[in-house]
Amino acid sequence: MSVEIKYDEWDEMICPTCKDGRLYFNHDHVAIEVESWVCTECPAEFHVDIEINRDWDNVREVKNNVSINN
């Protein structure tokens, strides 16, 4: 189910349940694939799916300090 999120004059997310509180980040789940956001005024909690985009155009090699013995 999709929920419409509105913002106040400070660009903070307004709780769609109570319309008074602001949503703030609580924690993430499942290796950062879902975030939990909670309301400051009511017990509402929302899960937000996270999309990770890999920027392969800026890939760079880093020094590997682990030696592999064959």
Lateral strand order in the biggest sheet: 3-4-5
Q: How many strands?
A: 5
Radius of gyration over C-alpha positions, nearest whole angstrom: 19 Å
Helix content: under 10%
Instruction: Please work out how many helical segments DSSP would assign.
Output: 0
Give the secondary structure arrangement, pairings included.
Layout: E1 6-7, E2 13-14, E3 23-29, E4 34-39, E5 45-49
Antiparallel strand pairs: 1-2, 3-4, 4-5
What features would you describe in this structure?
The protein is elongated. The protein is mainly beta and 70 residues long. It has a domain at 6-51. Helices cover 0% and strands 31% of the residues. A 3-stranded antiparallel beta sheet has the order 3-4-5, with no helix packed on it. A two-stranded antiparallel sheet has the order 1-2.
